[in-house]
Amino acid sequence: MSTTDKTELHREFDGKRLPPGQRKTSKFPVLSKGSTPDWDPETWEFSVTGAVETELAFSWEEFRDLSNETQTQDFHCVTGWSKFDCEFTGVTFPTLAELAGVDDDVVHVMFSALDGYTTNLPFEDCMRDEVLFVWEYDGAPLPREHGGPLRVVTPHKYAYKGAKWVDGIEFLTEPERGYWEKRGYSNTANPWNEERYS
Ligand SMILES: Nc1nc2c(c(=O)[nH]1)N[C@H]1C(S)=C(S)[C@@H](COP(=O)(O)O)O[C@H]1N2
Ligand SMILES: [Mo]
C-alpha cells in the first residue's frame, strides 16, 4: 500500500521540522485527562451533526469501510515532546465533510470523545488531508491508550487538538471552546508559533 509523506508540513509554517521549544523523542508517551474509556464495537457509533445537509451516523464497520489512506506524520505535544515519522491510517476530514455536505455558514468544528473530552478547531484548519480519523498506527490497530479504536491527529497543531476515542464531530456556525481550550490552552495551537497558552 502507498504511504503519503506529510512530514514536510513545517515548510508551510516557515518552521523547522522540530518546532521551537520541542524535544524529539523516540517513545510515544500517553497523555490522557483520565482513564481509557471502554468501548463496544457492537454499539459504538460515530456521528456527524450540526450545520450540515445530512447528519450522519456510522457503525464501526461502516466507518472502516470509508475510503482511507496511510500517511507519515510528525506529532507535537504541547508539553514539549515531538515524535517524528508516525504512520497513521484513517479517513481524512474532508472526506467526512463532503459526505455530510457542510453549510456555507460553518466556521468551527467541535470534536467529542468517549471519555467526555472535547476539542475545537476552526473549520478551515480541519479541511486538510492530514487531519485524519485514525484506526491504525505503524501497521497495527491503534493502541487503546493512544485513542483506539479511533482518534484524530492534527500534525499542523499541538496534539491536544486531536481527540482520542473520538465518536463525533459537530459543525458550528459560532466558535466554541473544548476541554483544554476552556482551561487555558491555546485555541489556535500552532506549534511553529509556540501558541501553547491563551
Ligand atoms: N479523548 C481524549 N483525547 C485526547 C486527550 C484526552 O485526555 N482525551 N488528551 C490530548 C492531549 S493533551 C494530547 S498531548 C494527546 C496525547 O496523545 P497520546 O496519549 O496518544 O500521546 O491526546 C489528546 N487527545
Ligand atoms: Mo497534551
**Beta fraction:** 25-35%
Q: What sequence of helices (H) and strands (E) makes up the elements?
A: EEEEHEEHEEHEEEE
Q: Label the CATH architecture.
A: Alpha-Beta Complex
Detail the poorly predicted runs. none
Number of domain units:
1
The CATH class is: Alpha Beta
Structural class: mainly beta
State the helical fraction. Answer: under 10%
Describe the structure.
The protein is mainly beta and 198 residues long. The chain has one domain (3-19, 44-193): Oxidoreductase, molybdopterin-binding domain (Sulfite Oxidase, Chain A, domain 2). It is built from three helices and twelve strands, in the order ββββαββαββαββββ. The protein has helices spanning 60-64, 93-100, 123-126, and strands spanning 3-5, 23-24, 45-50, 56-59, 69-76, 81-92, 108-113, 118-122, 132-137, 140-141, 151-153, 166-172. The strands form two sheets. Strands 1, 2, 5, 6, 9, 10 and 11 form a seven-stranded mixed beta sheet that branches. It has a five-stranded mixed beta sheet with strand order 4-3-12-7-8. A hairpin with a 4-residue loop joins β7 and β8 (118-122). The longest helix has 8 residues, at 93-100. The mean pLDDT is 97. Bound molecules: the ligand Nc1nc2c(c(=O)[nH]1)N[C@H]1C(S)=C(S)[C@@H](COP(=O)(O)O)O[C@H]1N2 and molybdenum atom (MO). The ligand Nc1nc2c(c(=O)[nH]1)N[C@H]1C(S)=C(S)[C@@H](COP(=O)(O)O)O[C@H]1N2 binds at residues 29-33, 77, 113, 115, 117, 146-147, 159-160, 162-165.
